[in-house]
Amino acid sequence: MELLEPLPDIVILDVSLGKEDGLDFIPALKDICAEKKVKMPGILVCSIYEDPFLIQRALDCGGNAYVSKCAESSEIITAIDKILAGESYVNPKFKIPTLNNGGEVLTRRENVIVSLIKQSYSKKQIAEHLGVSVRTIENHLANIYFKTNTKSRDDLLEL
After folding, report:
1. N or C: which end of the chain has fewer CB within 10 A?
2. Structure pTM?
């Protein structure tokens, strides 16, 4: 793979890249930049998904801004301006979950499980989808409930 020289100031990335998780690109890009000793470009995640847990995951992975594909062009420009100024941007309408445990964020797997719950998957369907046991999903759910200060699937749906 040939690397762009120089790298762009901003990379616009979608969460879904076919069957691939677009957010996996961010750590890979960090590794490339470290290896080449070049500045990491700003990452603007632009996606159709408006799930706050997914937005949090994008930011945790190293995204600098998150905008919906439905956003007005002025919001996209605002996000780009913020990135170029060294700041981050997420539309305030996206209510990023407040975590219960002093800032510990959900893991990637936990974010996937929350996303599947929001798509009305049962515990059994989630387990089959992820290739794990129902008990493993129950353990993840206990961690998710603790981290998000929720007690049930219904509580998660309200976040």
Report:
1. N
2. 0.64
* CATH code for the domain defined by 10-90: 3.40.50.2300
To the nearest 10°, report the CA torsion of 97, 99, 104, 108: -40
* The residue to which tokens 């929001």 are assigned: 118
- Classify 108-158 by CATH class: mainly alpha
Residues of each domain in the chain carrying CATH 3.40.50.2300: 10-90
Q: Which residues contact 102 (CB under 8 A, 6 or more apart)?
A: none
Instruction: Please state, as a whole number, how many other Cβ atoms lie within 10 Å of the Cβ of residue 89.
Output: 19
Torsion of CA 79, 80, 83, 85, to 10 degrees: -110
